[in-house]
Design goal:
- With 582 residues, the protein is α+β, with helices and mostly antiparallel strands.
- The chain has two domains: 2-38 and 445-575, Immunoglobulin-like; 99-403, no CATH class.
- It is 24% helix and 29% strand.
- It has helices at 125-139, 168-180, 185-193, 198-204, 222-246, 273-285, 299-311, 324-327, 358-367, 377-388, 442-451, 527-536; strands spanning 2-8, 16-19, 37-38, 44-51, 66-70, 73-75, 77-84, 99-101, 112-119, 149-153, 157-161, 253-260, 313-319, 371-372, 391-397, 408-415, 421-423, 427-429, 461-469, 474-482, 490-492, 495-507, 513-525, 538-545, 552-559, 565-571.
- Strands 1, 3, 21, 22, 23, 25 and 26 form a seven-stranded antiparallel beta sheet that branches.
- Strand 5 and strand 6 (73-75) form a beta hairpin.
């Protein structure tokens, strides 16, 4: 049985019909004892990279070569697979006309997904300049068939180049940039006449760089700086969550290369865990840290970490401050190094360069990535991330500790092979149910999803759109298809239950909300109904009144039990009989 309640936040009643197979009819509730169980598979998935002394992937390991420790206790590996990401895979079929989806399509053929996040929000002006210079240098080395996304974190999150596209336009853009700055008049003239990608051209020219209040000083009150830094932390965590949701259903190794000065206050999750990690790191690098942070993580940081680990994103942090030393000739004769190797050649530079940001080291360790600091490491970091993604292992286990109280639990992956390096995420939050933290402001959260430039694929959905003429105003017919099994996790007297909602939001070019229609859905399915929707999915039909000035329709499915979301953004220009405002 499906109970649904509709609300229209703009005061306009929108007729909405829900067709859910045969289960739409009312049915009496069982009078037996309420024995609601939450169907939760507490399976911990761990993506593992194993490399030899030369940095090459170790490809011949078997199930019995691995050992997994959870808080120091051995665990039984329930699932094991070795994945050769260099083998080409077939792309999924593209959606038909007027059909939009957040399911992986053309980029499913890519063996791995890499996003370079250029952080102007948390980086000094000088770091941005040096970092962009290194990015230009890297782009001169790419091939048109490469796949890498470039996102910019500033006052908002901007997609300069999506990861699901090949690098042909990046290849053309960097050459156009070089021609524009060439000493050859003919090359400059030709570049000025060429039609390029405005977003890429703006990024490469440095016009997306921001002056970061509170990082470069100035005559500004401490209260103002404190407020700005708090906004920056909120924007940072929201943007990282958006990227994680975008990658949720993408296959292969998922890597985020984060070029930044700092990611804010991030604490350790276990009393001695960070101390152990830093002791090992400082022993290898020879760097002595002045102090260990005493912060405690807020819910936003814990939510961000849990979402990244749940999706399986490995974060490779590149300290943008270290990139400055290359161009100042501080390290022009030193070999490239990373944190896992000896760094004696940089000992004479320690007095001139800043300490590593502990949060950058911590985040890389938590997610199974690498941290790079104080060297020509942007190109090295990107290439290392690509090399790590070539061959990976997936392990999964069901923890036997039975202590689901929300604490951070440390994971260790060991390999029965000498002289190898193992990369795996550092742990997980042992939460008792699917919800990562107490509920957020629901409407604010969903509005944030709607305004995001990237779609969430946590909950896959497909939307078919058609424009129709109404008696007074034009209409939009939307048909939503979804597979709700992951939202039906309550088991009560043999019935599957779930509580979720569907939102239809119309926005103008400035992301101003013009109309929001919401549908609450309370599902209560017997075994036959559940089997039917598991095979066929659900279809939801809606007719919306077209709002003048609307340029985007965002359709969102939201699981109230877990805060998981799926979203699809649909440009409305081709369906609008009304000239849109600009």
């Amino acid at each position: 049985m499906i109970n649904h309640r509709q609300r229209c936040r703009t005061g306009t009643c929108v007729a909405l019909a829900l067709a859910l197979l045969a289960c739409s009819s009312a049915r009496p509730q069982s009078q037996g004892v309420d024995t609601t169980l939450r169907v939760t598979t507490r399976l911990v998935n761990v993506n593992v990279v194993v490399t030899d002394e030369r940095g090459n992937s170790v490809k011949d390991l078997a199930h019995d070569d691995f050992a997994v420790l959870d808080a120091g206790q051995p665990q039984k590996i329930a699932f094991f697979s070795a994945i050769d990401n260099e083998r080409p895979t077939s792309a999924a079929s593209l959606p038909g006309p007027d059909t939009y989806t957040n399911r992986p399509t053309d980029y499913s053929a890519a063996p791995s997904s890499t996003i370079l996040l250029f952080d102007t929000l948390n980086s000094r002006w000088t770091s941005q300049g040096y970092g962009l210079q290194r990015i230009r240098k890297f782009l001169r080395q790419i091939e048109p068939q490469d796949h890498i996304g470039i996102y910019v974190l500033g006052d908002d999150l901007k997609i300069v180049h999506d990861f699901n596209r090949d690098a042909s336009d990046l290849f053309a853009a960097i050459r156009r940039y070089d021609d524009l700055h060439s000493h050859v008049p003919e090359a400059r003239a030709a570049a000025k006449e060429s039609t390029g990608d405005p977003d890429l051209d703006r990024f490469l020219s440095g016009k997306d760089n921001r002056y970061r209040v509170g990082k470069d000083g100035g005559d500004i009150s401490k209260a103002y700086i404190r407020d700005r830094l708090m906004i920056a932390i909120q924007m940072t965590t929201a943007s990282i969550e958006a990227i994680a949701r975008q990658l949720a259903n993408v296959q292969g190794r998922k890597t985020l290369i984060w070029v930044t000065d700092s990611i804010g206050a991030m604490a350790h999750f276990e009393s001695d865990d960070l101390d152990q990690f830093l002791k090992r790191w400082t022993g290898q690098s020879g760097i002595k840290l002045a102090k260990i942070p005493a912060w405690e993580n807020g819910l936003d940081i814990e939510r961000m970490i849990r979402l990244m680990n749940g999706v399986g994103i490995a974060v490779y942090t590149v300290d943008a401050r270290g990139l400055e030393t290359v161009d100042l000739d501080f390290r022009n004769t030193s070999p490239l190094v990373d944190i896992s190797s000896s760094t004696e050649p940089m000992a004479d530079l320690l007095r001139r360069t800043p300490e590593p940001d502990i949060a950058l080291l911590e985040l890389a360790n938590r997610t199974g990535g690498r941290a790079f600091f104080n060297s020509n490491d942007l190109e090295t970091g990107i290439r290392r991330a690509e090399d790590d993604a070539r061959f990976t292992y997936n392990l999964a286990y069901v923890p036997d500790h039975n202590q689901w109280k929300g604490e951070w639990r440390k994971i260790q992956v060991k390999v029965n092979r000498p002289n190898v390096t193992v990369l795996a995420r550092g742990g997980y939050f042992a939460l008792p149910d699917a919800r990562p933290v107490p509920p957020r402001n629901r409407f604010e959260f969903l509005s944030q999803i709607a305004a995001s430039p990237i779609e969430s694929s946590q909950l896959p959905l497909t939307v078919h759109i058609a424009a129709t003429s109404g008696a007074k105003q034009p209409k939009i017919d939307a048909k939503v298809h979804l597979n709700p099994q992951s939202m039906l996790t309550d088991l009560n007297n043999g019935h599957r239950k779930g509580s979720f909602e569907v939102m239809f939001m119309q926005l103008d070019p400035k992301n101003k909300l013009l109309d929001a229609t919401q549908k609450d859905i309370e599902a209560d399915l017997d075994p036959q109904e559940y089997a039917a929707i598991s095979q066929k999915g659900w279809d939801l039909s809606a007719q919306l009144t077209f709002k003048q000035g609307a340029t985007l329709l965002c359709v969102i499915i939201h699981d109230k039990a877990s805060d998981a979301v799926g979203s699809v953004g649909i440009p409305l220009a081709r369906y609008s009989p009304i000239p849109t405002a600009h």
